[in-house]
Amino acid sequence: MTKKTPRYLITSIGLLLLMMTLLLAACGSSTPATTATTATSQTTPSSTVSSETTQSTTVSSETTQAGPQKELNIGSLVALVTPQGIEIQKWGELFAKTINAAGGLQVGDQNYKVNWHTYDVGYQDANATQTAVQKAISQDKVTILVNDFGDATDVTANICDPAKVLQISVGFIDSVVGPNYQYYFRPNGGFLASDMPYTFAKTYKDGGAKTYIACTVDSQQGHFAAGLYGGDAKLTGLTVKDPIFFATDTVDYGPIATKIMSQNPDVVDFVMNTGEQDVNLIAALKDAGYKGKFMPGAGLDTSTLANLVTKVGAAYVEGMLMLDTDPRQIPSSINDPYLSSLVAAYTTEYGTFKTDGCFWVGGWFVLRDAINATKSVDTAVLKGYLEKSPPATKDLVGYTQLFARPDIKQDRTVDGPPGCGYGIVQGGQMVYKGQFTVQDEYIVTIKAMNLLSVYQPYWDKYGKPTFPAEEAPLSKLSWDDVTEGMTTP
């Protein structure tokens, strides 16, 4: 019997919730109380994306002011029952503290003090989400929400969109990035993120694996992600078995391990699981005698890996591939003065460096680049910038880039894959091996989901996106791979 797993998942697992009619009379303005609202913005994507990225170090913190310092209220909806939620809160507070300590956020000729508000939303709790969002807008005058993790995303979008509150968030479900909402952007999305499962599955197949199975939580997003990742595995030539699902409040993982063993897979993919669920499942599979490979997904980071090694021993997970979300190991972060300074500031502020939140705070960097590019904190202006193919953004673990989703009739650039490092477990430790680039994530997804015929008309009209130049040497795939087959990573 293993320790009971709380009702939450590692990624932003969206449950399709009944859309509620919510009172918005007290929701407030879309811009800081002391600024004017820009009424309109264009929604047509530009034809290409610049290959030059907006540098994360260029937002000024100089104190030259045209008048008194104003205040910018930024919020974050997080599940504080998770290690990720706690770390997201810590990073948000650190972002605000470092900016304010340097004199504030300089936007054009106006200087702002940044107030960071964190709201606990349980996990996928519609009532808690509604209460938190309404408090953020009506009481705290929040105009921008970033790095939301664990909220009921449809509820958040339904309240924020009429109030013109900008959301730069995390998640999987398509409804929030479809045409129904105008102020929701998802740079850390699950759909355009197929390179990780493809690369891991291909590497294991090249090592002799023949069969694959997904084992993940029984939820709408769990089912969606299992189908998506299974398609990626099938693209490598692996035989994909029917997925196995389990309840999020599962206590005894032994029966799940027995089901997996009955299918005799060479590779088990945990897809949407939390780190704790991954640890418990791997331990149960070891007890059941499983000898195959694991794909732990985003649930297992370098912090959780230590717990796994303690429980099952280093030898059992030797050679396991997993995401590397430690900016101290990722070249693009190591070589960036601003990102390196944030890592140093985190250690100074909090002591031991933890990686649980690094993958989930990319929204802040997207917002920062948008403010720098527009010299505005007006949400309509920021929306107009984000929806028209902005350059890629560098965050703590790689690059992220917003793309259109013509497969759901969305021509605005609203959804994107999170770039990330990956590594191999050797001697119980993570060893950095390479990088998942936005180029590879985008191309693999289109190929795996058979979307060429859907995306081609969009490219004919607007042009193909241009990916960040710094990542080009790291990318394994090219546009030829979309039509001519995938190359071996």
Report on the structure:
The protein is α/β, with parallel strands linked by helices and 489 residues long. It has two domains: 70-190 and 337-415, Rossmann fold (3-Layer(aba) Sandwich), CATH 3.40.50.2300; 195-328 and 420-484, Rossmann fold. Helix content is 35%, strand content 18%. It has helices at residues 83-101, 126-138, 153-163, 195-206, 220-235, 254-263, 275-288, 302-312, 331-334, 337-350, 362-374, 379-386, 438-448, 452-462, 480-484; strands spanning 70-78, 105-107, 110-120, 144-146, 166-171, 184-189, 211-217, 239-240, 244-246, 267-269, 293-295, 321-324, 393-395, 398-400, 403-405, 410-415, 420-426, 429-436. The strands form five sheets. A six-stranded mixed β-sheet has the order 2-3-1-4-5-6. Strands 7, 8, 9, 10 and 11 form a five-stranded parallel β-sheet that branches. Mean pLDDT is 85; it is low at 1-65.
> Can you tell me the number of structural domains?
2
In what order do the strands lie side by side in the largest sheet? Answer: 2-3-1-4-5-6
CATH fold-level label of the largest domain: Rossmann fold
Radius of gyration: 22 Å
> pLDDT under 50 segments (min length 5)?
1-65
Tally of helical runs = 15
Question: What tags apply to this protein structure?
Answer:
489 residues; alpha/beta; Rossmann fold; 6-stranded mixed β-sheet; 15 helices; 18 strands; disordered N terminus
List the helices and strands and how they pair.
Blueprint: E1 70-78, H1 83-101, E2 105-107, E3 110-120, H2 126-138, E4 144-146, H3 153-163, E5 166-171, E6 184-189, H4 195-206, E7 211-217, H5 220-235, E8 239-240, E9 244-246, H6 254-263, E10 267-269, H7 275-288, E11 293-295, H8 302-312, E12 321-324, H9 331-334, H10 337-350, H11 362-374, H12 379-386, E13 393-395, E14 398-400, E15 403-405, E16 410-415, E17 420-426, E18 429-436, H13 438-448, H14 452-462, H15 480-484
Parallel strand pairs: 1-3, 1-4, 4-5, 5-6, 7-8, 7-9, 7-10, 10-11
Antiparallel strand pairs: 2-3, 12-17, 13-14, 15-16, 17-18
Helix pairs in contact: 1-10, 2-3, 4-5, 5-13, 6-7, 7-8, 11-12
